[in-house]
Inverse folding.
């Protein structure tokens, strides 16, 4: 396995663009003192500096959360 550090910013040798935008969706439920949630982030911008129709990168994130409420 090899390691690689991505660079972000505005110079010409960066690996990824710094700016992104997208959509976020999520849902959750509360059962007694517990909270459970799930969410998904969908990046809409191409964050590849050399991006074109053949070369693109987008962020996608799946989130799962569990919480415990105090004082209720």
């Amino acid at each position: 396995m090899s390691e690689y550090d991505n660079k972000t910013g505005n110079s010409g040798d960066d690996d990824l663009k710094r700016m992104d935008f997208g959509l976020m969706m999520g849902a959750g439920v509360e059962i007694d003192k517990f909270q459970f949630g799930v969410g998904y982030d969908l990046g809409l911008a191409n964050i590849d500096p050399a991006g074109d129709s053949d070369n693109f990168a987008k962020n996608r994130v799946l989130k799962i959360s569990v919480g415990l409420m105090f004082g209720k």
